[in-house]
């Protein structure tokens, strides 16, 4: 087979072509190496980033344990000075060194984690009496510039986690009049808007790298929040906020299914039906908590999960142009 064209083939495409042509084994092996298998260079890059990430993570953990073990023996100036000096050193390394950009981003993520350590040390020294959400709010605010400038997905994930944590603690410590369903509705809408924004950048801006794993994590968080919120609303008395969550979740689920079909994302076609299965089980338990109902739920889960898996296999074969039995 002539390989002079730059074909974008996956493993399934190559196997289909080889079964229906006289393509030689040598040609198939060469195509697999070119289009499917990772090269030595790719493995070296992956291992470099992996070990660098582990190194930064263990370093931050070591700093935390250092302060925890030596807390009583350190002067407050030494405590603050050590953390601030480390942050300055790490940021200068990330900005002015000639390291690879990916390594610089990992180092900057470590610096963002150290900002949290600095606020924790400051709070322990001076016992400001502030609420816990103030700690996470300050942490979020002071790394915002780094997040926007670096545009590094793991740093964005840390940033969004801090925002959600700040809001959770705020509702628990200050806005205590927020009902649970109302709180879940706000978190769901916020994270859904973030997911839509990143998916839009992924498809509309070719120069912005939004990895698939990042949007999948966000999608899993959104579906988990809605599942927990709707299930909680089912077992509690009906509230107006519950209807808001339900009205917001329906179009999100529908758009998620449409997006999964259009862009061949089996992940969306699996987590959304699984969420619906959990919600239906909650409805059945709400209707009756007898032994017969639990037996019915077990049969429903077995049948629905089996049907979901069979449907996903059917869809995957259709996408791969494989014969469907």
SSE succession = HHHHHHHHHHHHH
Number of H- or I-type helical stretches? 13
- Largest sheet, described in full? none
Shape: flat
Summed over residues and divided by their number, the pLDDT gives a mean of 80
Radius of gyration: 25 Å
Number of strands: 0
- Secondary structure: helix percent: over 70%
Structural class: mainly alpha
> How many structural domains are formed by the residues?
3
Q: Strand content of the residues, in percent?
A: under 5%
Unreliable residue runs: 1-7
| Alpha-carbon distance between the two ends | 29 Å
Describe the structure.
It is a single chain. This protein is mainly alpha-helical. The protein folds into 3 domains: 1-37, no CATH class; 49-152, no CATH class; 178-325. It has helices at residues 11-19, 25-35, 40-70, 76-96, 101-126, 132-142, 144-150, 153-173, 180-204, 212-235, 240-262, 266-287, 291-319. Helix 4 (76-96) runs antiparallel to helix 5. The longest helix has 31 residues, at 40-70. Residues 1-7 have low confidence and may be disordered.
List the helices and strands and how they pair.
Blueprint: H1 11-19, H2 25-35, H3 40-70, H4 76-96, H5 101-126, H6 132-142, H7 144-150, H8 153-173, H9 180-204, H10 212-235, H11 240-262, H12 266-287, H13 291-319
Helix pairs in contact: 1-2, 3-5, 4-5, 5-6, 6-8, 9-10, 9-11, 10-11, 10-12, 11-12, 12-13
């Amino acid at each position: 087979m002539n390989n002079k064209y730059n074909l974008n083939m996956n493993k399934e495409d190559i196997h289909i072509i080889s079964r229906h042509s006289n393509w030689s084994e040598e040609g198939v092996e060469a195509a697999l190496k070119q289009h499917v298998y990772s090269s030595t260079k790719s493995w070296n890059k992956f291992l470099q980033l992996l070990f660098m990430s582990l190194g930064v993570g263990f370093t931050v953990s070591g700093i935390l344990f250092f302060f925890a073990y030596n807390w009583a023996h350190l002067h407050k100036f030494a405590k603050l000075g050590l953390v601030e000096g480390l942050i300055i050193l790490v940021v200068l390394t990330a900005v002015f060194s000639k390291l690879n950009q990916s390594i610089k981003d990992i180092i900057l993520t470590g610096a963002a984690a150290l900002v949290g350590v600095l606020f924790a040390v400051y709070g322990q020294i001076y016992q400001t009496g502030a609420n816990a959400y103030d700690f996470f709010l300050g942490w979020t605010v002071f790394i915002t510039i780094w997040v926007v400038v670096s545009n590094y997905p793991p740093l964005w994930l840390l940033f969004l986690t801090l925002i959600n944590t700040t809001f959770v603690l705020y509702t628990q410590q200050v806005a205590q009049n927020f009902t649970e369903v109302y709180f879940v509705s706000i978190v769901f809408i916020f994270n859904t808007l973030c997911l839509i924004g990143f998916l839009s950048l992924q498809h509309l801006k070719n120069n912005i790298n939004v990895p698939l794993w990042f949007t999948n994590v966000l999608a899993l968080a959104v579906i988990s929040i809605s599942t927990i919120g709707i299930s909680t609303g089912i077992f509690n008395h009906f509230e107006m906020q519950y209807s808001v969550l339900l009205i917001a979740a329906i179009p999100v689920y529908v758009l998620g299914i449409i997006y999964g079909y259009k862009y061949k994302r089996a992940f969306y076609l699996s987590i959304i039906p699984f969420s619906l299965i959990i919600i239906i089980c909650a409805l059945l338990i709400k209707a009756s908590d007898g032994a017969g109902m639990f037996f019915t739920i077990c049969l429903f889960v077995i049948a629905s999960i089996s049907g979901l898996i069979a449907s996903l296999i059917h869809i995957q074969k259709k996408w791969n142009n494989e014969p469907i039995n």
